[in-house]
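Write out the bound-state structure for 3-isopropylmalic acid.
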Amino acid sequence: MTDKILLLSGDGIGPEIVSSAERLLNSLATNFGYEFEVNYGLLGGAAIDQFGDSFPEETCRLAEDCDAILLGAVGGPKWDKIERAIRPERGLLRLRAQLGLFCNLRPAVLLPALKNASSLKADLVSGLDLMIIRELTGGIYFGQPRGIEVKENGKRRGFNTLVYEEEEIERIVKLGFETAMKRSGRLCSVDKANVLEVTELWRDVVDKMASDYPQVTVEHLYVDNAAMQLVRAPKQFDVMVTTNLFGDILSDLAAMLTGSIGMLPSASLDGNNKGLFEPVHGSAPDIAGKNIANPIATIMSVSMMLKYSLNKPELALKIDAAVDSVLNQGLRTADIASGGESSLGTIEMTDAIIDALV
Ligand code: IPM
Ligand code: MG
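---
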């Protein structure tokens, strides 16, 4: 069966890194008989420029009518001044909500070849392999009411609402338990139950569900402590499950532990194998169009897409092995080159990974 893949380049370095991913897919077709077709859609700033909407109707239709979506990145200074409701980032949030992509998987894996690229001492991070599971379609990102209003005295009030239905907590926590079962059997749930009632409920749901998973050892941490522990001794963690906002913050922190946010892929899943796959890093407008962006996070996102949405684990393993192989050969893009090492451009790194596919 031919897989239908939607490519959303987005903004900044998006077109360059998505083009790397497309070349990689083409080479899987040529060399290993992978059957797929692609469609192209606009999201974010690129969509605002063309349609005046960061998540146009056409993109919505294409997104609903495909098996998996690969996204570059959205946003940039060009669109920072426009009305909040139509900014590029809002397009991404609407896409997540529209497709019900409630489960965000953000692995933070330190590749052995890069153990000196982390800002932490090598022995603290070597072998790090962490999975952050972030709730993605609820919480304070979507809660109503929200807004900025002008008070009688002329001063303004800004407000957002943190709200979780019990069912929303259950379905993400379930994936946390299932992921922990497939890995080390340890699950850390992150909340702020000492202050926020919503996360008191979250903690209670986790405790109730724990009895269904006797093989899993559950730990609860407050988010401030979790942030501290991630920097102090990150290898104590295996699977972490948390709310939308806490997951946003902790996943950036964890990404940095691995040495380059340019290396990390992510998956946003709907619970039925459909998903959106994107690098964790942003659109990096300052280096756009210069052929220096690191394509590895996007290439690893293709690997996650093949594994989680398209049921082609053998092709995913080939990509992972090819990335390991080029890194072991000492090949680097500028962001992961340590002083003195020469570095490859986006196109050249992509070529090297394609050549290393076996
Ligand atoms: C992320 C990003 C997004 C988020 C932004 C771009 C809306 O930071 O995917 O982590 O906050 O979810
Ligand atoms: Mg973020």
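---
Residues 113 and 327 are 6 Å apart (CA to CA).
Residues 14-32 form the longest helix (19 residues).
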